Amino acid sequence: MLGDRTAPNARPQKLVSIILPLRDGAETLAEALESLLTQTWQHIEVLVVDDHSRDASPEIAQRYALGDRRVKVIASSGHGIVAALRTGVEAARGEYLARMDADDISAPERIEKQIRALEEDPSAALCATHVVDFGAIGEGRRRYSEWLSTIRTHEDVVRNIFVECPLAHPTYVMRRDAYHEVGGYRESPGPEDYDLLFRIWLKGFRFAVVPEPLLRWRDHPGRLSRTNIRYGDEAFRRCKRHYLLASGILRRKPRLYQWGAGKEGKWWLRHWPEGIQPCAVVDVDPRKIGQRIAGIRVISPASLPEPGDVMLVVAVGVHGAREEIRHYLSERRWTECEDYIFVC
After folding, report:
1. Does residue 242 form part of some domain?
2. Which domain, by its residues, includes 86?
3. Same domain, 99 and 134
4. Are the C-beta atoms of residues 47 and 74 closer than 8 Å to each other?
5. Which helix (H) or strand (E) segment is 87 a member of?
């Protein structure tokens, strides 16, 4: 019998429902499914949700379903990734919900290690892993995956949550009840995984990370994250802004300052809502210091007030600047997440 192959005296494995949205994935689907059906955690169901594919991928999925009862093929109830994910969740029977894409490959022990991590921390709602890139890897993906490898703990996730989505979506494993408590995947103008992550955080749940590369994450020019506007820079900025304002972080201190008057910083200066305006913006460019940008005066780092009643939002997108600024502020007794946060 396929499914849970635990020994007679072993603790029964909880069912994990793996949601795999599918659209025109004929070239890679078989490899993805093979990696799931050989998991050391055997008690799984693989829900392949077909999002109106135009190639042979539904037929490939059906062949796997005929050969292994753990595979089920479902037609999406709508159009697009969110509709496919929600369709999969509605059909899921497992206590845990896992993600997988049709062009990625999971290590055999991936699901087992993630479930163990969640069992070790009952307050954690979501567990992710590190990744290994392969395929036609773009420079942006390479840098992103390198950064993801620095995220190892719940505290790392929280510290970096406004920088970028700090956990790779295809590695998510979630407690089903927590997923529903925060409202699940939602249609929005921005990235569905980041939106979900923010809501899990705002509800006070913890995150778990297995700091091992347990997913081979394929990159290619046609990948949705490269081609769809909901994964573009503007959509990410607006998602961050929405949840930064919703979080109440800016209300913790009576004064707001911003660091950064470059491309990213100017976006934030233009998009602060009425009633929430920085007292000043910090920049290291001597040509900007003393000027006004979006009506806000530019000061040097040396002119920053002492930490205490100031919340500093750092919006500098230059590669490598984040660690330099962290070091500068740390030396001056600023505490991250208490006195300042990064938003890029």
Report:
1. no
2. 16-234
3. yes
4. yes
5. helix 81-91
The model's pLDDT over 152-199, given as tens digits with 9 standing for 90+, comes to 999 999 999 999 999 999 999 999 999 999 999 999 889 999 999 999
Kindly state whether residues 295 and 157 are assigned to the same domain: no
For residue 84, is it within any domain?
A: yes
Contact 207, 124 (CB under 8 A): yes
Using alpha carbons, list the distances in angstroms from residue 104 to 129, 139, 215. 14, 19, 7
Burial state string for 40-79 with b = 16 or more CB within 10 A and e = fewer than 16: ebbbbbbbbbbbebeeebbebbeebbeeeebbbbbebeee
**Number of structural domains in the chain:** 2
Over residues 110-129, the pLDDT tens digits come to: 999 999 999 999 999 999 99
Residue appearing with tokens 């300052």: 257
Which SS3 state, helix, strand or coil, does residue 282 take?
strand
Q: Is residue 70 one of the residues assigned to a domain?
A: yes
pLDDT per residue over 22-48, tens digit each? 999 999 999 999 999 999 999 999 999
Q: Which of 65, 67, 87 is nearest to 76 (CA)?
A: 87
- Residue 275: DSSP 8-state: T
- Beta-carbon contacts of residue 220 (< 8 Å; ≥ 6 apart): 103, 135, 136
Structure tokens at 175: 């407690």
| Separation CA 321–CA 332 (nearest Å) | 17
3-state secondary structure of 89: helix
Q: How many CB atoms lie within 10 A of CB 256?
A: 17
Note whether 95 and 180 are within 8 A (CB): no
